[in-house]
Amino acid sequence: MKDFIYDIGTEIYFGKGAVNNLGAAVKKHSAKVLLCYGGGSIKKLGIYDAVVNQLKANNIEWQELSGIEPNPRVTSVREGVRLCREHGLTAVLAVGGGSTIDCAKAVAAAVSYDGDPWDLVAKKADIVSVLPVFSVLTLSATGSEMDPTAVISNMDTNDKIGLKHPDMRPVASFLDPEYTYSVSKYQTASGTADIMSHIFEIYFSTVKSAYIADRMAEAMLKTCIHYGVTAVNEPENYEARANLMWCSSLAINNLLTYGKGTPWSVHSMEHQLSAYYDITHGVGLAILTPSWMRYVLRDETVDKFVEYAKNVWDIDCDGDKFATANKAIDKTEEYFKALGLPSTLREVGIDESKLEIMAEKASRTLGSVFVPLNKDDVLNIYKMCF
Ligand code: NZQ
Ligand code: ZN
Fold it and tell me: What's this model's pTM, rounded to 2 decimal places?
């Protein structure tokens, strides 16, 4: 196991009525906030009213940044920064899914930077200080509610890049599983695939000695498998929504990474698909993951896949390791289909015209992953997905 410092600072208020704690928690840090949300689902659901009532009851002033896009754009970040400066806002409050939370985090990091926020995303400048971030989660998927990352897109350059700073981890997040009852089947399925992918990215690592992290990862994968299809078919099943919500946060809040963190594989390939074709993140991951697994299955990795087969899918190893590994990969693919997700790039409107450039960009960060992948490897994986 590698050395680590455990530091997961986000306060989580979990359960029915969690939002009732919001005003008091925010007030400890700020009396003037930027309220961030997306295309308006929170207004239909009564979540907006609940949040605003909390702000009013605690004498917290606010300005609004609305219309934040799925795959949030740097243009929204710029607008948020403008509002914060103009009105002297001292905290950001995101109400929504990962896109809204990510945009809010990027605003929080960019307010104190004089240049264009994209400089921070593109690593041309360092983040110096970050406004306190709060989130009310409405979609279980990205784990942004408890992690220090934001992923921002620039559609002018077809770039989608993650930025990260310890202070971007929300100070407090409010997780009410009932707030996810209205999430569509498609987004529920996609979110479940995203959570599973976060776990895979850590589970399939070059570090082989983190037994405790691997057993926790398997428990989380089993949780997604157990409840994902249920949540798709029974949107108001509290138990399913609650387990997925907590799993979303735990999968990526560093708990699994401690002792075994390595760079990720499939996310890098997916972010190119979203950057060029604006597809839903979890859907891209569900399409890529089985092909990636088949591509990286080899003598050096087969034991890890057998472990996955045995401990996650309860598959007996009959002696032929590769057959067992392949059964587990088939199960993974079948599960994504059972969630109702597409399984080919063509189904989501992607053709072969941009594969080269996407493969080149994705491969830039894939030199020291579970199985290192160069441009040709990525191209092969993309091609397997048609
Ligand atoms: O825009 P609104 O009205 O909010 O509607 C959203 C959006 O259309 C809707 N929605 C959210 N909550 C709802 C709801 N609809 C009905 N009822 C509710 N309760 O769902 C749609 C998708 O929302 P979005 O926030 O885009 O989804 P998600 O949470 O999957 O976030 C995806 C983004 O996060 C990034 C992805 O790349 C993508 O840009 N990621 C962020 C990560 C992080 N911060 O650590 C890691 C991830 O790997 C990922 O890259
Ligand atoms: Zn993800």
Answer: 0.98
